[in-house]
Each structure stands twice: as structure tokens, then as C-alpha cells.
Design a protein that fits this description.
Number of domains: 2
Largest sheet: 6 strands, mixed
CATH superfamily of the largest domain: P-loop containing nucleotide triphosphate hydrolases
Number of helices: 10
Oligomer: single chain
CATH topology of the largest domain: Rossmann fold
Shape: globular
CATH architecture of the largest domain: 3-Layer(aba) Sandwich
Length: about 280
């Protein structure tokens, strides 16, 4: 599903998010990153129709929530840190309770995912651990065959073995090239592994939104002796940090950028980009 945010702002009591401006094609896994308090949850709430924008327009597959709310919600699957299900009901009962609101929900699919995730149909939801609750949310979301999957910090609560299973599931989900995933996470190595597109927020501002390849081509991490780093063009330096074994600088990069032979030039990871950009703005 294509996701468009056009000049979007959201004003809350003590916080403003925006302007947000991005256009994500269908078939992309989008990583949503930024420090705590940067606006990630607010953006997700806008995308899920829980908030209306104060300004601008949000379209999912060319539709707004005002125009086609029922259709958009039917196509939306979510995994959130909040408890979404009835604690006193079993997993299968919860599936039946909430599955009736989705046109493509299949109980057999839920049962298959529960078995795959090592969850029991008769378990009470309230007796699940935090990680198990997120597994159930994922199982239920997949069982109603969404076109857009919104995931808020799920992997930090998964054990290492299930994290591998989770990435296999994302690959299966994306196989037809028409579905989309928004993954908010602080585990940036997950994004280096799976993300096609990155939205980076800080203090309510969109710092970067674009495909990962463009992001990686736009910056370089330069490492070398302090006097060599000082020779870099000041207008291209995002942030410099001195260390025991040399000085590092994140710099803006173009195909015409030239570097001294005595420095090491690397493509930064998403974690390194976030770290240096955050330091620059403090």
C-alpha cells in the first residue's frame, strides 16, 4: 500500500509533530527511528487513523480516513506495546471476538500461527508474558490478511530465536510486492537488515525520509587523525567526535566528494547516522 503524508502537522498539548512530507511506494518495509519523545508514536497514530492531522493530508492507497475509514481499517494490522485484547478470554476467543470486524479473518490461519509461535489456543491472554502478547498480536494481525502492517517496537521483547522467525515472517508477508510494513524500533541493526525506506524524527521534526540506498549514498563516516579531519570542508561536516584511536566525522557525501588517502571512509550504519545526527543537534 502506498503511503503519502503531504505537509502533515499534528498539534498536541505540549508537542507538535511536523511538517511531515514523504511518499512511500507499495512493497516497502519502512523503518521509523528517532530518540524517545521524537514523535514516532504520534506518527503511527496518524497513520492508523487514531489522530486526525491538524494540517495537511494523509493518504493510504490514495484514500483518506475521512473518505474510506472502514476499508483502510480492514486492511490494517497492528502490533503495539499496549494490551489490545481481553485478558479474561482465551487466545482463540479473542480471535473470534475481534476477527468478526475484519472481512478476511480466518480462524484456521490464526490456529496455524499460534502453533508456529508456540502459543496455545486455550491460554488466557492476561497470563501471557509481554513477548507472548506481542506474538499473539502478530498472529492475529496476520490471520486477517492486512495489506499494511504497523509494528511498534516488537523485536526488543522477542527472544533471539523468535526474532529470526519474525524476519522470515516479514519476508513471507512482503512476497507479493503489494503489501507494506512500518516498523518503529530502537534496534537499528534490524533496520540495516530489512528496511527499504527510513523516516528519522527528532523533537517532532522530520530529519530525513527516503529510501535506504539514497540515505547511505548521502553520507560517509570519515575516520583519521584529528588534523586530517579538520581539513574536511566545514559545511559538509554533520558532527565530529574525538576518540582514543582517532577522530570520526559524519559528512555529507556526493559522487564528486574527494577524501585524503590517509583517512578511512565508510558507509555509515543506520545506528551511526542516528548517533551523529543526534549529537549534532544537541
Amino acid at each position: 500500500m502506498r503511503i503519502e503524508f503531504v505537509d502533515v502537522k499534528k498539534n498536541l498539548d505540549k508537542f507538535t509533530l511536523g511538517e511531515l512530507q514523504f511518499d512511500i511506494p507499495a512493497g516497502y518495509i519502512t523503518g521509523l527511528v528517532g530518540p524517545n519523545g521524537s514523535g514516532k508514536t504520534t506518527l503511527l497514530h496518524l497513520l492508523m487513523g487514531l489522530y486526525n492531522p491538524s494540517e495537511g493530508e494523509i493518504k493510504v492507497d490514495g484514500m483518506t480516513y475521512e473518505e474510506r475509514e472502514k476499508v483502510l481499517l480492514d486492511n490494517l494490522g497492528v502490533v503495539l506495546v499496549e494490551d489490545l485484547f481481553e485478558g479474561s478470554h482465551t487466545l482463540l476467543e479473542n480471535g473470534r471476538d475481534y476477527g468478526k470486524y475484519y472481512s478476511r479473518y480466518k480462524e484456521e490461519a490464526l490456529k496455524e500461527y499460534l502453533e508456529r509461535f508456540e502459543l496455545k489456543e486455550g491460554q488466557l491472554y492476561r497470563k501471557l508474558s509481554k513477548g507472548q502478547k506481542l506474538k499473539f498480536q502478530l498472529a492475529f494481525a496476520l490471520a486477517h490478511d492486512p495489506k499494511l502492517l504497523v509494528l511498534d517496537e516488537p523485536t526488543g521483547n522477542f527472544d533471539p530465536a523468535f526474532r529470526e522467525e519474525f524476519f522470515r515472517i516479514l519476508k513471507e508477508f512482503m512476497a507479493d510486492g503489494e503489501k507494506s510494513v512500518i516498523l518503529a524500533t530502537h534496534i537499528t541493526e534490524d533496520l540495516d537488515r530489512v528496511a527499504d525506506y527510513i523516516i528519522y524524527l527528532e523533537k517532532g521534526q522530520q530529519i530525513f525520509a527516503g529510501d535506504v540506498e539514497n540515505l547511505r549514498e548521502s553520507y560517509r563516516l570519515v575516520v583519521g587523525e584529528k588534523y586530517k579531519i579538520k581539513l574536511l570542508a566545514p559545511e559538509k561536516i554533520i558532527h565530529t567526535e574525538e576518540g582514543t584511536y582517532g577522530t570520526k566525522a559524519l559528512v555529507k557525501h556526493t559522487r564528486r566528494s574527494l577524501y585524503d588517502k590517509e583517512v578511512t571512509v565508510m558507509v555509515p550504519t543506520i545506528e551511526e547516522l542516528m548517533y551523529f545526527m543526534t549529537k549534532r543537534r544537541k
